[in-house]
Amino acid sequence: MELSKFITDKDVDDTIKILSENSVIGQVSKTGSGKSTIFVPKLNQKTSAIIYSVQQTVPAVNEISSRVKQILGDDNVGSAAESIVKYKNQFLKDLRTRAKDNLKKKVIKKIADSNKTKVVFVTSKHMEKIFIDLVEYTKKFGTNGTDLSFCDILIIDEAHRGVAENEIVMALWKSLFNSGAILPRLILTSADLDMKLTQFPDAPCQYIKTKQYPVKILYHDKDYSVNSNELYEDTVDVIIKNSKEDNSYKRDENGSTWLVFCPGSNEVEKVASLLRAKGPGDLLIVPFYSEMDSVEMEKVFNKCLPFIRKIIISTNIAETALTIDNCSYVYDTMTEKMTNTSISGGLRLDLVNISKASANQRMGRTGRTCPGKNYRMCTEFFFNSLEEQKSSEIDRNPIFNTIIKILNLELNPLSLFPNLNKDKVKNAIKLLNNLNMIEKYKYEDNSFYKVTEEGNFASKFSFSVKNSSVLFEWIKSGLPIFPGLVTICILDSYSQGYFYYPKKENSETKDDYKARMEAYYEKHFSKFYHHSDLGILLNLFKSFIEEYKSYDVDYKKIVEFSVKNSLNNRKFSDFLINLKQSIKILENDGKKIKFGSFNVDKLLDKLQPFFLKTFSDDILELQGSVYKKDGMEYFFDRKPGLKIEHYKHKKIISLLNYEVNSGKKTRKFIVLSIPKKYVYYNEDEEKYD
């Protein structure tokens, strides 16, 4: 029998049979076989089951839910991406109410399907929050026999990646199940899933065979180091050469779409700039990376125009789950920026070669809706030398928040995650202990850790543990909550920044671009000027609330303010959502928060001792023309045009920094900082509160 290109009704029937006999199963099928866009709606149609599917990125949640709505209808499909929740589930709502208000367990009943969205796609962070709520409920009302089936079937896609939130969900599912709770049946899906490496090594696995459109793999004639600039120039030359040889798109009403993978946003923009400069005018160049706003991201999924070749240049945000229509060619630089834990315990970005598994995932972006080609910018010999698969994200990344979440649930991290590096757990516990978020105690000759008041406080927020510590001490001191909370939300939501900066044009010299940026700065950013990075961002927020008289405004006004001030509206909106949610958490805890403007200089002066205490390991000293700590040089991650006088301060506190390992050396970058000694405010200025 000829294989189908996509998951079939028979495959779904087989899943239903296996799932009826097992609480947990794995499912392996090729990239592009329709694990989310075909399997999920078919499973719902055949069983009428309420299904939640966990995806790894916000774009994946949005794109997949949009496609499934075309099959099941808008009212039957929901989503939860970051803080934007678009689904109904009265069962979860009631469960949280009972747990919070200590109402009787018996009050919760099974809710009719009419009060639940049929199919919901969510991010892993959202699902983690649901399971933490489930555990909190069982701590009050018991686990054995307790019905926690907020849905019928829970699917975790790309389960092989070891994302921390997914690992927590699986660990909590297993802990609750082993304690007798009634839970949704669990399906782990991936193209590269090995059940023996998951939390369920003995669970059965369904292998679905499909036949994709043919994809031809091509290899380059040379290899590159990961930090080679020549790699991107040669990639562009290959793309332009192939586009000239294959100009069939000029006669195709559907146009043509190609996809290029680069390691980070800077490399994406570099390739985009080179393609615009060297390529023909009928190439539509579309960058794609997580820091872009939603309007720019939509261009990726817009239908290609007739007789045009759209070239999407992306980071690994496009590596999994996304379907890009009519994508016939994938170009792969074979590199990525992978997160790891730095020496100091923070987040480090390493520029590395991808694994074979990632290369195959990227190849799977073509061959979905048409035949395709995959050009790998390495020799076949080099490809064969790559590691099969990277270590899981939970093994590589900082786990402070993971540890405190688990300890706060009165569970043992090493029992939940037996394969987790023990030294890494011990180091995380040491820092949490130093921040007074956990404390050691003995019971019957055994040592345990319990979460302190400060740790419980931190567990309610999505902040980093250091930022949570600063906020806790700030509130404890009796200072006005609102300006301190604003500062922490600005820091924690920062990521790649709030400002939009124009890119250098190909025709511009460096001096021309610098002059244009200085003029751009004067027009858009000079009104926010301050002596520190953090002060600029506080002035930005102060300008916003003084203009709109509130922090809680509709999205239209956020976009209006963002356009006027050259901001990334998505990032600024995320910050405001984070602020609103944090205020709600504090108000639910009985805190009174007075809204109002504030004096930025005096605020930073008041914050300085809290930062100094918590970020004592991040104090840098100016030595010559560079800041150093323990012999390591730190550089400013600075956009052109900003005129902050960093180097007038002998010492600074680095509030946000990261490492980049390019293969040859490790470089540290300062993203946000303040002077160690803050002396700018005038006592005669307006009162702080």
From TrEMBL:
The keyword Nucleotide-binding applies. Residues 235-415 form the Helicase C-terminal domain. Keywords: ATP-binding, Helicase, Hydrolase, Nucleotide-binding. InterPro entries: Helicase_C-like, P-loop_NTPase. SUPFAM superfamilies: P-loop containing nucleoside triphosphate hydrolases. The keyword tRNA-binding does not apply. GO terms for molecular function: ATP binding; helicase activity; hydrolase activity; RNA binding. It holds the Pfam family Helicase_C. This is Helicase C-terminal domain-containing protein. It comes from viral metagenome.
